[in-house]
Amino acid sequence: MSRSAHPAGPRHADVMTEGHYTAPPADLNALDEKVWARTVARDEHGTVTVGGIEVTRLAEEFGTPAYFLDESDFRARCRAWADAFGRDADVFYAGKAFLSRAVVRWLKEEGLNLDVCSGGELTCALDAGMPAERIAFHGNNKTVEEIERAVTVGVGRIVLDSFQEIARVAHVAQRLGKRQRVQIRVTVGVEAHTHEFIATAHEDQKFGIALADGRAAEAVRRALTLDGLDLIGIHSHIGSQIFDMAGFEVSARRVVQLLAEVRDEHGIELPEIDLGGGLGIAYTSEDDPREPHEIAKALGDIVTRECEAAGLATPRISVEPGRAIVGPTAFTLYEVGTIKPLEGLRTYVSVDGGMSDNIRTALYDAEYSVALVSRTSEAEPMLVRVVGKHCESGDIVVKDAFLPSDLAPGDLIAVPATGAYCRSMASNYNHALRPPVVAVRDGRARVIVRRETEEDLLRLDVG
After folding, report:
1. Could you tell me if 401 and 323 are in contact, meaning their C-beta atoms sit under 8 angstroms apart?
2. From residue 51, how far is each of 161, 376, 415 by CA, in Å?
3. N or C terminus: fewer CB in 10 A for the chain?
4. Is the Cβ–Cβ distance between 207 and 187 less than 8 Å?
5. Distance (Å, rounded) from C-alpha 93 to C-alpha 277?
6. What count of other Cβ atoms lies within 10 Å of the Cβ of residue 56?
7. What burial class does residue 370 get, using C-beta atoms within 10 Å of its C-beta: 0-12 exposed, 13-18 middle, 19+ buried?
8. What span, in angstroms and rounded, lies between the C-alpha atoms of 333 and 336?
9. pTM for the whole structure
10. Does 65 sit behind a cis peptide bond, omega within 30 degrees of 0 on the bond before it?
11. How far apart are the first and last CA of the chain?
12. Does position 242 have pLDDT exceeding 90, yes or no?
């Protein structure tokens, strides 16, 4: 591949990005372990490897763009969460982050449960052998057909999201002669410090039943009186990509207050609370996520303290990490195409993917890192914006980053921390073909979700 230099954009030490000055990293060839999967490294030739395999070799075999998932890292993170919370708590992997049959098998083998939020995710879980009793079923508008299947196969819990759903699940369970374990999802009025579209515990949004106006207490009354339901606890989820535990403290306090009200009114202590997920990961070097054991201790201390104050037995805690497990374990590999310098501004680097394989930058204003991975370079840094090939001005993968000024068409660059939501939210915009997901482990690579073909697109087009 060509490595010739080209006219570059700004190269000065500090550049203006989004209203503030940013300095380029001291070493563009360095890989920050916070944002890359654990087996990612540079070999003696300067090529990045994952699971012991060079990215150049992976690109030749599987093409680009493609997601490469470090299976060893994924499994290690599963074990870390399971070990941190121990046998007295439950860890449910949030399947919406990324789900495939291979992932379901890994979860099963590593001892994690699974949270699904659609009939399709439930089908994937069951087909891959996840025991139904280890599945939780979420969703703000589950269809009757989805509920019927969930109750029929015996999912471990259905999280009820509205008064209509309480009645709906009860009716289905009664008709099928079942008693379904359920939790009630409440909105606790906590505004998570995150993007508006991924903050989920304030009242003005579609999820859950409000705590502040007494609706949650009424939902408990209905769930306790309807045949077919076995109310096991309360569920709360305050948002996503959260680093500060303060929101969880407020949420836990309000959920425990509801548990105390239930005890006082109904004479029972609900045995479980689910505090949801939403723990953040490092997308850039500035992010500072917590380790699972820190999270487990913090949540455990919060719940124990609040329950002691309320005179309640400490309930069994559930958590739902998705991004925190799969997010850091994968990166997206691209080939550089057009390079377009804008004097005094930045250089636009176009790659062979874009918003069809990573919509998060456009949707959430998400920030990512990027690195030249097919070689090293001692060239000066240049400010770049990594963009896709789609007919859309918002087709941005990485808003502002630094890459070597001798970057050239044909080079391979990679965006780390794309394991969560990128493949799950991928689209066929401009009739793009969704990339494959390739699992890499101990020097071996295998496709776990294959690349789409043009035949796949035409097969659905019956016109």
Report:
1. no
2. 41, 19, 17
3. C
4. yes
5. 9
6. 18
7. buried
8. 10
9. 0.92
10. yes
11. 42
12. no
Amino acid at 181: R
Q: Tokens for 335?
A: 């080939």
CA dist., res. 292 & res. 79, Å (int): 10
Determine contact, residues 240/194, Cβ cutoff 8 Å: yes
Q: 117, 124, 307, 391: which one is catalytic? A: 391
The answer, yes or no, to whether the previous bond of 315 is cis (omega within 30 of 0) is no
**Helix %, strand %, coil % for the chain, to 5?**
30, 25, 45
Say how far apart CA 332 and CA 357 lie, in whole Å: 9
| Pairing verdict, β 229-235 and 272-274 | parallel
Closest CA to 247 of 210, 297, 324, 192: 192
**DSSP labels for 160-172?**
E-SHHHHHHHHHH
Alpha-carbon distance 371 to 28, whole Å? 7
Decide if 111 contacts 131 (C-beta within 8 A).
no
The structure tokens listed for 421 are 């939501």
81: phi then psi, degrees, rounded to nearest 5: -70, -45
Label residue 4 by pLDDT band (50, 70, 90). very low
Residue 231 φ/ψ, nearest 5 degrees = -75, 115
Both tokens assigned to 163: 């008064």
The DSSP line for 121-151 is: HHHHHHHTT--GGGEEE--SS--HHHHHHHH
| Interval 93-131: pLDDT, tens | 999 999 999 999 999 999 999 999 999 999 999 999 999
- Any idea how long the chain is? 463
CA atoms of 342 and 239, how far apart (whole Å):
38
Encoding tokens for residue 456? 């796949």
Q: What distance in Å separates the CA atoms of residue 261 and residue 216, rounded to the nearest whole number?
A: 11
Sign, Cα dihedral of 149, 152, 154, 156: positive
